[in-house]
Design a protein that fits this description.
Blueprint (H helix, E strand, L loop, with lengths): L1 E3 L10 E3 L2 H36 L13 E4 L2 H14 L3 E6 L24 E7 L6 H12 L3 E5 L6 E4 L3 E5 L8 E4 L2 H15 L3 E3 L13 H11 L4 H8 L1
Parallel strand pairs: 4-5, 5-6
Antiparallel strand pairs: 1-2, 3-9, 4-7, 6-10, 7-8, 8-9
Length: about 240
């Protein structure tokens, strides 16, 4: 925030305050350098952890290591683990989602792709096509796609799955996955799950992001649906009931 001016024997030193803009610029530069160093440490730590899990998943004595597969049955722990798992992805984040839930789907059901990814993490999700029949679920899926997620639709998604890179996967033990989940870190199973996801990824229909605002010469999807129902001869009440 301050600096000492150059001085001579006849001109004593003075401690001068820095101008506010330069002072703030210096503080921000210091924070930026610190965050950059911490980010490098974080990325390096994840890389070394992944390498260690791949190399030493099975102990040298041949016994099965308990951390490779674990069961989580606490609802709060499952929810927290799901969020933490998304934050650990550094290259790939893959999910299977059939929107089988204990409660009705709300707008905050899905976690949007993290802006911090900055395009470094490829986010891909395969949704059950029937989810598009639910108005709220459709908005949730579209919001994820607009935020940068690559979304595709499959006629039937048999189970949920979350998979981060080549390190960790979470599978449900119940239809909704809220009462029990299997956390897998065994490299051989992770590899198989990735192959399974890639096979499914080749089959679905891509979901294209919508425009954030419709141009004057283009109808929105809702307007197109209403126009189609009008063309079928439906009145306002029938259109309202069908559109929900």
């Amino acid at each position: 925030m301050a600096h000492v001016l150059p001085h001579t024997p006849v001109d004593p030193a003075w401690l001068r305050p820095a101008s506010p803009d330069l002072a703030l610029q210096g503080v921000l530069a210091g924070h930026q350098n610190r965050l950059a160093r911490e980010q490098e440490l974080l990325v390096d730590g994840h890389r070394r952890l992944a390498d260690a899990q791949a190399r030493f998943g099975i102990g040298m004595n041949g016994r099965f290591s308990e951390h490779l597969v674990s069961v989580v049955s606490d609802r709060a722990a499952i929810s927290e683990l799901s969020a933490v798992l998304a934050n650990t992805a550094r290259r790939d984040w893959m999910t299977l989602e059939n929107l089988n839930t204990d409660m009705p789907v709300t707008e905050d059901f899905a976690q949007l792709p993290l802006p911090a990814y900055g395009g470094r993490v490829r986010c891909r999700s395969i949704y059950d096509a029937s989810s598009m029949d639910d108005l709220v679920a459709r908005r949730v899926i579209q919001a994820c796609a607009d935020a940068g997620e690559h979304a595709r639709l499959l006629p039937r998604v048999p189970m949920k799955m979350k998979l981060a890179d080549q390190t960790t996967a979470m599978l449900p033990l119940t239809p909704t996955g809220t009462a029990g989940a299997l956390v897998i870190r065994a490299p051989v199973i992770i590899a198989a799950l990735r192959e399974y996801f890639e096979m499914l990824w080749e089959r679905p229909t891509p979901l294209k992001p919508q425009r954030t605002a419709a141009s004057p010469d283009r109808l929105t999807p809702v307007q197109q649906a209403v126009l189609k129902m009008m063309a079928e001869g439906l009145n306002d009440g029938a259109i309202a009931r069908r559109a929900g």
